[in-house]
Design a protein that fits this description.
By secondary structure, the protein is α/β, with parallel strands linked by helices. It is 43% helix and 20% strand. The protein has one domain: Molybdenum Cofactor Biosythetic Enzyme, Chain A (3-Layer(aba) Sandwich), CATH 3.40.980.10. It has a six-stranded mixed beta sheet, with helices on both faces.
Length: 164
Amino acid sequence: MTFRVGILTVSDLGARGLREDTSGQAIREMMASLGATVERYEVVPDERDQIALRLRRWADEDGLDLVLTTGGTGFGPRDVTPEATRDVIDREAPALVIAMVSEGLKRTPLAMLTRAVAGLRGRTLIVNLPGSPRAVQENLQVLLPVLPHALELARGEPSPHQSS
């Protein structure tokens, strides 16, 4: 299965060109290993309305299968990615976040400081990832085994994983 992906990096410094987006690049590399096509990529500041606008557009107009955000999920006063994501999703997928946090806690107690959200807007799965490249890789590694099946289900397609 081929799926179409958007990567949205949320970073005030990145949006101003003052920080290289190594987390977005880490996502791009991991998606390539799955054979996914990254069709949208953007760096936006930590602004709730701008994040929500991209998520809506990429889901509704562009019809992407998967949107992965990176950054803005912590306790900082400008970290608003989870709120923007909740503004746009129809249904939450909390077990995806639980799985990422559970695995992360094996490495560091700091994993419990995430406020990440995952959910569906129509047929588009949106998942918030942390802002650091290493944490992005660790979290995505948890999701990779289930992503193809999850995206097939979201599309309403029959899956070889389902029993009849």
